[in-house]
Write a structure and sequence with these properties.
By secondary structure, the protein is mostly helical. Helix content is about 70%, strand content about 5%. The protein has a two-stranded antiparallel ribbon.
Length: about 300
């Protein structure tokens, strides 16, 4: 194969690895051990599936190897990324790049010149690893934010209060919830869309996603992501949990804003929400519906009205 073919196959993943290397060198504590451990984990996981798949007949199209790669990326890599992120063992970009390096090396040696002596399968794998690595870095960043938020919200201050809920805490919780909703809905909504039932898919998606947020919000004051981060949504005036109607209205706005963030024109609304949140500690939705996001500790020890200086 020509040099240009190899460059085309390897260029995107090499850029990702370079970004991870820069992040590693910029880190003061230089977590070389953590990065090496992730590389070993990813390499061993890759070898377990790449060696058997490299022994298949040359006439195959490589789908078995690609399926094996998807399995290890879905099962083992996210667990490692979440653990290393939660414990802050390495920066998120280092985590993503280190987990990708293992499959790059093992695939290069076990799958090269297989499948009709073509770089097609190898190149497809390497390109596929780029969004996987980026997703693992995001997962590590979310886990790191969740861990830091929980440590802040469970640490009592000398004056009896806790640190205010940061915008990054709320963003981490929303990222977790969005990932759960996407994982649940992606297959059924895709099936409905392929069956040319786009309207039904839209309605089902809105109802399920909104209910996912609204039901636990009205019952416990927090969604799954908010529970993991350690924050709760309450009435700004009384400190009580929201009624189902207000919880559903708030959840519907959140779902619509998440969908709008993917567009160009409608993305202005989520941007305004985040700017208001960063400035005052409360988003536009909070002001409209009279809600406030607080830490778990305050919910169990004091009413919101008794400590109005936090998260106003």
């Amino acid at each position: 194969m020509s040099t240009s073919s190899y460059l085309t196959a390897y260029a995107p993943v090499l850029v990702l690895l370079a970004i991870g290397a820069v992040a590693l060198l910029r880190e003061n504590r230089r977590p070389w051990g953590a990065a090496a451990g992730l590389v070993v984990v990813s390499a061993v996981s890759s070898l377990v599936v790449f060696i058997p798949t490299s022994e298949v007949e040359p006439e195959t199209d490589g789908s078995l190897a690609l399926t094996a790669l998807v399995l290890i990326c879905v099962v083992s890599f996210p667990i490692a990324a979440a653990v290393f992120g939660w414990r802050r063992l390495a920066p998120p970009l280092v985590v993503g790049a280190s987990l990708v390096l293992g499959p790059v090396v093992t695939a290069s040696f076990t799958l090269r010149d297989v499948y009709n002596d073509s770089l097609w399968t190898l190149g497809l794998m390497l390109w596929f690893l780029v969004p996987i690595g980026a997703g693992l870095a995001v997962l590590a960043a979310v886990a790191e934010s969740v861990g830091a938020a929980r440590r802040r919200h469970t640490a009592k201050r000398p004056d009896g209060t806790v640190t205010a809920v940061r915008p990054t805490d709320r963003l981490a919780a929303l990222t977790i919830d969005s990932g759960v909703v996407f994982g649940v809905l992606v297959l059924p909504l895709t099936a409905l869309s392929h069956a040319e039932h786009e309207t039904i898919a839209t309605v089902v998606g809105l109802l399920v996603a909104t209910s996912y947020f609204a039901v636990p919000l009205s019952l416990r004051g927090q969604s799954l992501g908010q529970a993991l981060v350690g924050i709760t949504v309450l009435d700004a005036g009384t400190g009580d949990r929201l009624s189902f109607g207000r919880a559903y209205a708030r959840s519907l706005i959140v779902v619509l804003e998440v969908g709008a963030a993917a567009t160009i024109i409608l993305a202005l609304l989520p941007a305004v929400e985040f700017l208001m949140l960063a400035q005052s500690g409360r988003s536009l939705t909070d002001h409209l519906l009279g809600t406030r996001v607080v830490s778990d500790y305050r919910v169990t020890t004091a009413r919101v009205a008794a400590q109005p200086t936090i998260g106003q």
